[in-house]
Amino acid sequence: MTSHNRCATTLSALDSLKRQCDLSAGTELQIHLVDAGSTDGTPEAVRRHHPDVALMSVGDDVFWGHGMRIASRNSRGADRPPFTHQLWLNDDVVLDDDALAHLLTVGHQEPGAVVVGAVHDGERTTYSGRRGPGLDLVEPTGRPEPCDTYNGNVVLIPSAVRARVGDVDKRFPHGMGDYDHGFRVRKAGIPAVVAPRHIGRCRRNPPLTGSREPGIGPREALRRLASTRELPPRAWWRYCLRHTGYRAPVLMMSPYVKTLVRAGVGR
């Protein structure tokens, strides 16, 4: 897990982990959280309410992808017992009480597969696996559904898969790292499936923020789009080269051109 200035949200996610039930006898959960320079008291609150969480504080220049690599590295320390699975969990997800048991059950039914947990906001699916040319959300159907890649909100990864594919690529400091990981999993011949039902709640990120904020103008919109939080050009170009084939040059330019047009028209 990673966190940054979302104290109440992070605590809710940790609380939901502690409520997990119906786990097989002997199941042990070790939580590794990397906090990226929070100034709202997140580290202190985590230590106070969840003293068993392995918490590392780093600078606020560490974004999701880098933080998840650090958390994974910490979980594999020499003083740590070997694990059977890693669970990626965003700090804005509140898991159902039996979510982990459900994911592990699906993992036993689909040996060696990465299992993705779909989450919702009370009305619709917000994050899940992704499938098809448009990377559409995969809806839970009551049975494991194959996917091409996945959002990194809730992902259960067998230890053998982590050892073979690795963590989020260091070339993706924030966004795209989860999609890239999913595509690398599939290219390695490893199945990825969405669990049969939703396993928790998570709101979608607000739509009109960042480069999409109304009235900010083309230059500011492009600056925000090219920032680490959205689509930094070097990382985006590498993603396009890896996963979009001959369409890479067109897809590389498309979001920047669309952002300039949208911001210009908006003014």
Automatic annotation (TrEMBL):
Short name of any one Pfam family annotated for the protein: Glycos_transf_2
Region ranges (Disordered): 124-144
Domain Glycosyltransferase 2-like, chain residue ranges per copy: 1-131
Pathway(s) where this gene product acts: Cell wall biogenesis; cell wall polysaccharide biosynthesis
Keywords: Glycosyltransferase, Transferase
Similarity annotation: Belongs to the glycosyltransferase 2 family.
PANTHER family: GALACTOFURANOSYLTRANSFERASE GLFT2, RHAMNOSYLTRANSFERASE WBBL
Protein name: Glycosyltransferase family 2 protein
Organism this protein belongs to: Streptomyces polyasparticus
Taxonomic lineage from the root: Bacteria, Bacillati, Actinomycetota, Actinomycetes, Kitasatosporales
